[in-house]
Amino acid sequence: MLSWQVKAASDEIMTEKPAPYLSPQAASARQARRDREAAALRENLRRRKVQVRARTDEPALRPSATIIGSAVSPYVRKIMAVCDLKRIAWRCDPIVAFQGNDAFSRLNPLRRIPVFIDDQVMLADSTAIAEYLDERYPVPALFPHGAAARAQARWIEEFADTRMGDVFIWQIFNSAIIKPSVWKQPRDEAMIAAAIANDLPGVMDYLESIAPDDGFVCGALAIADIAVAVHFTNLQWSQTTVDLSAWPRTMAWIARVDAVPEFARLTELGTRAISTRSADRAAMYQAMGVAMTDTSYATSEFRTGPMSV
Ligand SMILES: N[C@@H](CCC(=O)N[C@@H](CS)C(=O)NCC(=O)O)C(=O)O
Fold first, then answer.
1. Domains of the chain
2. 241 C-alpha to ligand 1 centroid (Å)
3. Is the distance from CB of 143 to CB of 131 less than 8 angstroms?
4. Pocket-testing residue among 112, 125, 156, 237, ligand 1, by greatest number of atoms within 8 A of Cβ
5. What digits encode the pLDDT tens for the residues 104-151?
6. What is the model's pTM?
7. CA distances from 87 to 65, 138, 205 (A)
């Protein structure tokens, strides 16, 4: 086990530095908040071992947020997973990538999903959003404790966001699903085959070298596991013939992430979103227990954003 692959059961609870002086009322409010967070954590851990339950069954423990973006996007599901694990209630405007209107361009000059809005921030990058949520709501911790472990988790997330995003999303998923469904172009089998032959093995070899023997890469489930696993779902949706059996440690690791109920539910949400006609999508999200925003940034025309990759 590498030094940063710490067993982090105790890391799930982060304590705050005590304030230098607290009035009795403030001390009592702080204690009540801690009791609520501890109860939420116990409930979270208990539920992770049992069944998938709709998010709307849960009391809203934290201020509600808005997530703009479809559950088909791996980066959007990453943020939905962070919110669900932290019991942050969210509403969704499930616009597909490239579908945002002019107001969306003003909101996010990159024209990318997800965009996250709550009572304090508007953020347009999944890494920035995940770090913000972990700092604001430390329980359960989705970044490990300790400088080295946190840096390793961030590095793996970065590898997933950039290199896996390049190969799994921009080369394979784009050629298999986005080109036909968004741009009405034929599925690009040559591009898919080239990515599987030339690029995917290097990514898989690296993941195999960091995959944990059991559990998750930083001990408890953390951002690194989520960021990597979401891409495998999009690879599956791409319906290629790729054989990943040469990387058994990685596939066992991803299966463990897939089995986390919150994660499984979002995979199901994305699976339904990808196979539901756009006219029926809002009803499908609601049927899956997702609250919808009153207005949408969607427009009927798709357009490319300013980013080249
Ligand atoms: N670094 C961003 C990447 C987000 C991203 O690439 N989203 C894709 C959808 S999977 C998108 O919106 N693409 C539209 C475009 O690039 O114009 C993040 O982590 O949030």
1. 147-265 (1.20.1050.10)
2. 25
3. yes
4. 112
5. 999 999 999 999 999 999 999 999 999 999 999 999 999 999 999 999
6. 0.82
7. 11, 12, 34
